[in-house]
Amino acid sequence: MQQRIANARNALNKALVSGEGDPLPAIANPFGKRPDTETLPEILDFHDTFLKLHEAGDVSSSWRKIGIRHLITLIDLITLRWNDQGEHHHSDAEFDEIERRIEDLNARYREQADELDRTRARTQRDLEVFFRQAPIGICVLRGPELRVEHANPLYLSLIDKGPDFIGKNFLEALPELKTQSVKNMLFEVYQTGRPHVGYEHGVILHRHQRDEQTYFNFVYQPLREDDGTVTGIIVVCSEVTGIVLSRQVLSEKEREFRNIVTQSPIAIAIFKGPDLVIDLANRTMLETLWRRSDADVMGHPLMEVFPELENQPFPRLLRHVIETGQPHRDREALAVVDGPDGPRSFYVDYDYAPLMPSSGKAEGVICTVNDVTEKVRARKLLESAQVRYSHLIETLPVGMYTIDENGYIDLYNQAAATVWGRHPLPGVDRWCGAYQLYSLDGVPIPHDSCPMALAFRNGQSLEEELYMVRENGERRHVIVYPRMLHDEDGRRIGASKVMIDITERKKAEEALRESEEKFRLLTDTIPQLIWTADALGNIDYYSDSVYQYCGKSPAELARKGWLEIVHPDDRTGYRKRWLHSLHSGDDYTFEHRLRGYDGQYRWYLSRAVPLQNESGQVTQWVGTATDIQDQKDFQQTLEKVVEERTFELKRANMELVGRNKELSSFAYISSHDLQEPLRKIQTFVSIIMKTDHDNLSEAGRRNFERMQIAANRMKTLINDLLTYSRANNGEKVFEPTHLNTILGEITAELSDAVEAKGARILIDDLPVVNGIPFQLRQLFINLVSNALKFTRAEVPPVIRITSESVNGKDVTHEKADPGRRYVHIAVADNGIGFEPEYATKIFEVFQRLHSRGDYEGTGIGLAICNKIVENHEGILYAESQPGEGATFHIYLPLPA
Fold first, then answer.
1. pLDDT given for residue 668 in this prediction
2. 692 in helix, strand or coil?
3. CA–CA separation, 579 and 545 (whole Å)
4. Are 499 and 399 in contact (CB under 8 A)?
5. What is the mean pLDDT of the chain?
6. Is 199 helix (H, G, I), strand (E, B) or coil?
7. Is-contact 593 566, C-beta < 8 A?
8. Contact residues for 319 (Cβ-Cβ < 8 A; gap 6+)
9. pLDDT tier at 85 (50, 70, 90 boundaries)?
10. pTM of this prediction?
11. 594-625 residues labelled b (16+ CB within 10 A) or e (exposed)
């Protein structure tokens, strides 16, 4: 024991000398665990003091030195009181001195301990103040159940909870978080001890009595004990909902702004950099001024797209705006822009505004252009029109004049002087320049009571008919329209009046009435049946020829109506067509039979046309009925002749079909005969090239090689023509055909080409169709061969063949039968593709999109495919874009 005590004293001395704040070495406590109560009180005091020093690792160094000295004194006291045998061997004076030292140390120890307690209390208060006033939400969760140990007021405010939230299970107090990602993140931090940081994380919180979408920046920090064990989580968070929502609103505003710019009726464009690269152009700019597409201009320098601007001021002004950052505007500037339809001139109002980023240096220009061409041209026309205005007014056939604010005539045209029969004196004649005025009843009208005077005094516009009498006594029938004149402030400054001389029109109306009488006389004498009806279709007049034909009196026909003499079988159609014309205003035309006075029916063609007023409203119907019985008789004779001619045409068609078969057979035999001399040419050329190769000149060998190539091409062409002939005129024997079997055979047959190209052919599960097997085989071998032929360099070919069953009504093709079902087979590749405008042309015979030097072929393959699909009553078309491959769509009808 003495050795352990000595070691402990040495260790404590060493710690006292070093002055370090590290925890005391374990050897400094020679007594191990706390001794029992029978042990010396100094040993108990030593043990308790040692534990306090270990636990208070953050105290000041001065207090720690006092504590260490206290431990050394206690060891000295214990050593003095006991030896190894437990006997006293020191004097009482020595014990008194040691006790005095201990008392002194205890006093200083208590003083430092009190100061430490005060310091800890202040620190605790400071922490609590910080915790309460922290500008971020802080919450401490304890244990695996995540019990809320602390939560500052800001955190409680963020989650809309009160102080009773503390002490509860976190997820039970906030049940809405159980189904969100927060739950998993908390448990992961607690289980793994790894912190989790989130930025603008979306969380739905139930606060303010409703569910709210919120966003937070947060840190989930594991809370560890001294041994590193995770016993809780510190949650630090700040709400950024306003920032996120503002940014979302800003993004939406930016999107709306771009849409507004794009759809703006004002032409807008953005140019970037000194080269004026076109960064944006809205539809108005593209369609009205530039007449170009997006792809034509976007990303290109302005001068590259519009070189004609070189001699115009716009590029120089745009660059000046970028260099200086100063905006520029101009009005009614003349611009000449060259487009697909040629150069066009525009007058434009434009504004150039610099694009100023945060750096403060302009990096581009926003250009807004308003096409005022029509306005400028209209103004120019107006300016020229104003020159002609006075002349126009002067030469108008309608009388016009104006009065000033006192009623005196100040301006008038020649037509007005003609109506008046005199020239009034400005400033002398008032209200009207006529010699005398009378109402239509012949009552004299004083000038002070004329329409112009009344209209001016009452501040209203009028319309009135009256007589103006000239100095020579001639009377003119006139319609007058006086109107007020106001200045910009709405004050009356005079009036104007239009005078229309309708004397001749009134004479014409009288003549018209006389003409109507003549019309009625005429209609009563011609053989056609004539009638009129009002706007509602009620017949109000029949010519005498109607009564003579039907043998009815006016009273009988008025009582029973026109339908009484119409054949019963024709009445429904007659009524339906007549009602349609009444509702639509269209001319009425209908053929029907009418019963005559002798009871016999004859065919008539009834016609009626609407008479309309100036507003386009029907006011009357005028109708006729013309006897067409002779035409009907002739039509029946003609139909009989047509029937005979149709029979002869059918017989001629049958003869034509037979001749077509003979012609097809002739073509087939001729094609075979053509191949025989070709085979001989190929054979002899091969023999010559083999036996006399060295005897031929270089030019001779090239000519023989060209001969071989031409012969092979001729053979291929003949074979393709034979195939096309067979597809066009071959025997059409349909039978169930397994498409997957056919494609399997084709894949095997083309295996060399597939391997050479490194191609992949992907085939879905295809159906069994009712078709002509050898033709379907030819169809797919042509399509697959084409896909292997027209490939892109360095791109391995991929050919995909898919199928689906569709209704004819869902097929967007003019040849589709909506009452049938089809199998839709698509053959798609990733080859060179072609322009969409050639989608129809490629199916024509001998049509090629590429030269023979680029791709071999005769230009018949797709024509054969088209004929085969037509033989199966199907549909074939292609879709493609250059460089994006092609897809051939085949629709074959399925059995009903």
1. 58
2. coil
3. 25
4. yes
5. 81
6. strand
7. yes
8. 274, 276
9. very low
10. 0.30
11. bbeeeeebebbebebbbeeeeeeebeebbbbb
